Amino acid sequence: MSIFSEDIDDHEDTEEMTGTSLEPYQFEPIDANASDTDRLTEDESSSDEELLGKLPNDMSWCHCGNCKMMPTRRECICCCSVGEVVEKMEEIGASCITESEGFDAVCLNQWVLLTAYYQYRQQYGKYKESIHEQYRFTSYRQLTRWCWGWL
Fold first, then answer.
1. In the chain, count of helices (H) and strands (E)?
2. 90 and 120 within one domain
3. Among 47, 49, 51, 73, which one is least packed by beta carbons within 10 Å?
4. What does pTM read for this prediction?
């Protein structure tokens, strides 16, 4: 089957090609208006105090030296803690993913982000947030595609 086949959008053909069934909205961002406790799964039944406690003075989770304190413990993740990102850093010879020329080109260049957003919009429809949130969302998708190779 050619990748340029007219049947490429057919669900059965896509499932046959990838070996998995499609699940809509599987990789969409979490609702920004949801509270941190709404975002937790049953396995992460921590209280807000536990999530927010100990964070202001504790940066021990950062191994690259470039991380910033985030509002919740759950969001405090260093690039050195994610296997696929570490593999990409080793490939490009960087101690932090943000120090690479590739990161700037793939995740921060406004023209690349705009073009990637057009692809997203064509496939899923308009992302109904501010332009800054749109670029941030697209940048997250670009980083994911760059490090994992797919979304």
1. 7, 0
2. yes
3. 49
4. 0.59
